[in-house]
Amino acid sequence: MTEPSVTRPQAVIFDVNETLTDMEPLRDRFEEAGLPRDAMDTWFASVLRDGFALTVAGGYADFAAIAAEVLKELLVSRGAADGDVDPGTAVDNVLGAFRRLRVHPDIPEGMRLLHQSGIRLFTMTNGAAAMTEGILAREGLLDLVEARLDVSAPRAWKPARAAYEYALGATGVRPDQAALVAVHPWDIDGAQRAGLTGAWLNRRGLPYPGTMTAPRVTAPDLVTLAGRWA
């Protein structure tokens, strides 16, 4: 099915975790902690669950705090904490590696194409803006991104509308002039409910959930997406 024509955005807002960053190296840290490599998926999904739940209930905690608590619980429930692994050390190793992640191979070229075409670039993460800045700086991409944002200011995790409205405020453009680029359907759905264009990077060729609003744009990688807008 051919996608409808989508107006070229003035501003592109990137999700960070998994969209920009490749989280696969974290599996080594989980294995070192005595957990199976696929425990990373359970951990990350549980961190999102707790962040979302707090937002819905009117509460807030930052990513690092939730990530540490979820990992400690996982270590205990899987029996890893009964061995030679110190839970505190395991948490430090995982979160330390999380801050040192690299971007996916398609990201540098895609971001440069968008920037060169005059589209303004931003990031908005449920994690920490400081972590995003560190990753972008190591990759030589920091100067391309006008502002690195996170949910600590609105105190609401994406996909809450307040998170997208905060990011839009930083861009200074109308919702219909901005696009949110993400690999997560829940992020695409939330952005589109807030009036933005959702651009889904479907790197793994997965079906999009029929229960969520369909993305306005779909691409297998950022270079392909940038080619449509550049």
Task: Give the overall average pLDDT.
Answer: 94
Distance between the termini: 23 Å
Number of domains: 2
Strand order of the largest sheet: 3-2-1-4-5-6
**Beta fraction:** 5-15%
Tell me the name of the CATH class of the largest domain: Alpha Beta
The name of the CATH superfamily of the largest domain reads HAD superfamily/HAD-like
Order of SSEs:
EHHHHHEHEHEHEEH
* Broad structural category: alpha/beta
Global morphology: globular
Report the radius of gyration as a whole number of Å.
18 Å
- Count of DSSP helices? 9
What's the total count of β strands? Answer: 6
Main pleated-sheet profile = 6 strands, parallel
Could you say what the CATH topology of the largest domain is called? Answer: Rossmann fold
CATH architecture of the largest domain: 3-Layer(aba) Sandwich
Low-confidence stretches: none
What portion of residues is helical?
40-55%
Relevant terms:
2 domains, alpha/beta, 44% helix, 230 residues, single chain, DNA polymerase, domain 1, Rossmann fold
What layout of secondary structure does this protein have?
Layout: E1 11-14, H1 26-32, H2 39-57, H3 63-77, H4 87-99, H5 107-116, E2 120-125, H6 129-138, E3 145-150, H7 161-171, E4 178-182, H8 185-193, E5 197-201, E6 217-219, H9 222-229
Parallel strand pairs: 1-2, 1-4, 2-3, 4-5, 5-6
Helix pairs in contact: 1-4, 2-3, 3-4, 5-9
